Amino acid sequence: MKRIAALIGRTAVSCWHHGSPHLPPLPAWTPGPPYTCPQIRHLAAKQNKGQFKGQKIKSKPVKLEKQQKQEVEIKQRMTVSELAKAMNKDIDHVYEALLNTDVILDEMEPDTMLEEKWIKEAVKRSGMKHKWAKLVETKVRENKDIQRQPPPDPAQLVPRAPVVTIMGHVDHGKTTLLDSLRKSQIAAQEAGGITQHIGAFRVELPSGEKITFLDTPGHAAFSAMRARGAMVTDIVILVVAADDGVMNQTTESIQHAKKAKVPIIVAVNKCDKPQADPQRVKEELVGHDVICEEFGGEIQAIHVSALKGDNLLELAEATVTLAEVLELKGDPTGLVEGTVIESRSDKGKGPVTTAIIQRGTLRKGCTLVAGKCWAKVRFMFDEYDQTVSEAGPSIPVEIVGWKDLPSAGEEILEVESEQRAREVVEWRSYMEEQDKMKEDLQAIEAKQKQHQESYKKDRESMAHLSWRQRRAALYRANKHKLSHRLSEKTETEELTLPIIVKGDVDGSVEAILNILESYDADDQCELDVVHFGVGDISERDINLAETFSGTIYGFNVAANKSVQQMAAKKGIPLRLHRVIYKLIDDLKDELSSKLTPSTEENIIGEASVLATFDVTVGKKKIPVAGCRVQKGQLDKKMKFRLIRGRNILWEGSVTTLKHLKDDVLTVKTGMECGLSLDNEELEYKPGDEIICYSESEIKQKISWDPGF
């Protein structure tokens, strides 16, 4: 206590003598005359009213206004951007508030959902206090979706034409077969002779029967189109080339047909070729559980030649016979039901879909819903681009009047009014958002659980350390997170190729995206699809490509002159293709061009140092190595390396190369020479090796293999 009092006393005196801001300064002291007393004047303070003599005056305490903390309204689930907005701060503030916590900041985005405890922690670290937002009672939204109608009354059913899908491997003659049946020239119009769309056609046979054919692509890239064709069909005609046999897409087509539980008719094509072996084809099919009638099965196998038109009538009769056995019937009354086979964007017509009607009769003015899109039917066209007034069951038709472009494979349902169509579309969009939120939340929880487990392991590994050592270790581990704000983009050495994909129809874009999903070479170069869509290349695509410094890949689409000029001016590459595998090859080449070329070293010659001496040039002494070439030759223009034992002492170029007293460019095997290197401080020793070598760059290739 005495020490504290002494400290207080000294502090008081120091304050008086050094002019404390709280106390008035002492007046300057001057010595008075000897033997005189200083005059002291006593001041009387005015007595307050109601105060008695001898009563002590109580000083009123000064009330300091307490600083009010900012209140932040929070709720159980908030994103980073929502919390920043509630705190009236920027997103970086939230990131900084959550430093040195269990939250993985590197993986955090503005739309990342935060847990309740991290919301509170961020608010607390920001010097604020939280309050719960008032709960607003959310009403359960009424299900506004539309469903298929119940099965129709059998009395209303009428016979309908069969829907037949032609499937098989690429270049086995599917389109040529259909050409011969409908006497048209589709195959001649196709790029590379490869079907790259799903086409719907109606064929009337000489006997009067009508059959709706779906021609599906056989290329490996169009698996989704083949699956879609199998799901809407009644019969599958499996085309197999007699000279080629069962191939990859043949097997896949069989699997699609079995999955859809659709009967198969085998058409063994190209039987007119000398190397054709139909018997071998049918034996190979047995191995895939496709047993033809001659082997005791129920599947018809017809030998045809699509090019010459042999046995096509027999194939058509077999199809009609099987359709009669299946007793195919449809309901032409009631609301329309159908399936989108293909969708595309047309300049004059807008969004257009090719659909097959499965129930009801479609007429002009009908209101349709497909997925999250709806249409008021304005026009209908057949496969010959002729206007039709109505389309019943099993009839393929092009529908014009869609507000947006529905995806291929979507179910088409008719509704009573436009208002009802909007309700259905809004409900489906809302449900999709809810499902996405649930998926995001599950992913977040799984990631947080994983992080907590790793954090727990890290803590356990530091359990033996003192708190100071533990704190130092954590600081070292998190030091890189403090070096920059997370919202600021840091330059990375990772290679990226941003691309924009445009296609003529939805199915083509879907096929390309399915191929790109198989991309597995992100460690070499990251492939980033920044946008995809249906339709010709537009100015918006060019601007988007410029923003991301990307490349535009177009499949069966065009770019008008102004768009091409705009792309050339801005330096945006346009890669337009009509064959899908050429597009993928072009993409692989561009990915490969992004890779850093590897350097290959070629040894041209080797020499050993026999003696060393100095040569005076002006006032400088330059060390020179006397060498003998042991292998190859020394070329002054190439690079050199000095090796002693197993250590590389120097790499660079030669300043002087002499044979006898002459300057030379090359010295061959067995010859002696003197050379000096571009580093004058090097000391040579007998026995050192000098290697002459050249470096060449080798272009790397992307390791991605799309499978064709």
TrEMBL record:
Q: Which InterPro entries match?
A: EF-G-like_DII, IF2_II, P-loop_NTPase, Small_GTP-bd, T_Tr_GTP-bd_dom, TF_IF2_bacterial-like, TIF_IF2, TIF_IF2_dom3
Task: State the UniProt keywords alphabetically.
Answer: GTP-binding, Initiation factor, Mitochondrion, Nucleotide-binding, Protein biosynthesis, Transit peptide
Query: What's an example of a GO molecular-function annotation for this chain?
Result: GTP binding
User: Which Gene3D superfamilies does this entry report, sorted A to Z?
Assistant: P-loop containing nucleotide triphosphate hydrolases, Translation factors, Translation initiation factor IF- 2, domain 3
Main subcellular localisation: mitochondrion
Q: Where in the cell is it found?
A: Mitochondrion
Q: Which GO terms describe its cellular component?
A: mitochondrion
The chain positions of domain Tr-type G read 159-329
Query: Which protein family is named in the record?
Result: Belongs to the TRAFAC class translation factor GTPase superfamily. Classic translation factor GTPase family. IF-2 subfamily.
**Function statement:** One of the essential components for the initiation of protein synthesis. Protects formylmethionyl-tRNA from spontaneous hydrolysis and promotes its binding to the 30S ribosomal subunits. Also involved in the hydrolysis of GTP during the formation of the 70S ribosomal complex.
Q: Check the record and name the NCBIfam families matching this protein.
A: small_GTP
Q: What is this protein called?
A: Translation initiation factor IF-2, mitochondrial
Source organism (scientific name): Cyprinus carpio carpio
